[in-house]
Structure formats: structure tokens, C-alpha cells
């Protein structure tokens, strides 16, 4: 499971994640618009090991969009924001 960020679209369940060469590498399992990050974000179930791949394409009902493939969590990886 990885995260994706898409500045041009809000990902939704079952959108298709593709490698840059068009190979299907996963599917969106949950998606939303993040007002904090000001981008679309999603959790993606992968079909293969990505290694160091950090870019891809997201096929949606509105077309194909560029995405950044990222580790989770999407923000505050150092846990510097207090919670409680």
C-alpha cells in the first residue's frame, strides 16, 4: 500500500494507477481532496513492487492525470505536530 498525490483530480475508489509506460500497477482503495495539502490524495493497493518509482499516471473517468507516488503518512512524517 502506498499513497498518491494528484494536483489535477480527486482520486476515487477503483481509479487505476499506471506506470509512466502505461502498465497497470495498482488501484485506488480510498481517495479524497486534502485541504491541508491542497491536492487530491489516495491510498493505492499495488500489484507489484515499485522500488524507487515516484511518478505515475492515474486513469479516472475524466482522463489520465500525473501523480506523485509517496510513502505514508502524507504529512508530518517526523510527528512534530502535537496531537491529543
Q: How does this structure look, described?
A:
The chain has strands at residues 2-6, 16-18, 24-34, 39-46, 55-60, 63-70. The protein has 84 residues and is mostly beta strands. It has a six-stranded antiparallel β-barrel with strand order 1-4-3-2-5-6. It is globular and about 40 Å long.
Helix content estimate: under 10%
Gyration radius over CA: 13 Å
End-to-end C-alpha gap: 27 Å
Report the portion of residues in β strands: over 45%
Morphology: globular
Residue stretches low in confidence (pLDDT < 50, at least 5 long) are none
Main sheet specs? 6 strands, antiparallel, barrel
- Biggest sheet: strand arrangement: 1-4-3-2-5-6
The total of helices stands at 0
Structural class: mainly beta
Strands, total number: 6
Average residue pLDDT:
91
What is the string of helix and strand elements? EEEEEE
Features:
84 residues, mainly beta, 49% strand, six-stranded antiparallel barrel, globular
Annotate the secondary structure layout:
Elements: E1 2-6, E2 16-18, E3 24-34, E4 39-46, E5 55-60, E6 63-70
Antiparallel strand pairs: 1-4, 1-6, 2-3, 2-5, 3-4, 5-6
Task: Write a concise synopsis of the structure shown.
With 84 residues, the chain is mostly beta strands. It has strands at 2-6, 16-18, 24-34, 39-46, 55-60, 63-70.
Amino acid at each position: 500500500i502506498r499513497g498518491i498525490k494528484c494536483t489535477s483530480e480527486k482520486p476515487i475508489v477503483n481509479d487505476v494507477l499506471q506506470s509512466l509506460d502505461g502498465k497497470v500497477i495498482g488501484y485506488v482503495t480510498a481517495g479524497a481532496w486534502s485541504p491541508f495539502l491542497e491536492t487530491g490524495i489516495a491510498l493505492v493497493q499495488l500489484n507489484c513492487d515499485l522500488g524507487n518509482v515516484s511518478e505515475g499516471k492515474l486513469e479516472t473517468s475524466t482522463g489520465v492525470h500525473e501523480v506523485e507516488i509517496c510513502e505514508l503518512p502524507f504529512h508530518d512524517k517526523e510527528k512534530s505536530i502535537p496531537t491529543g
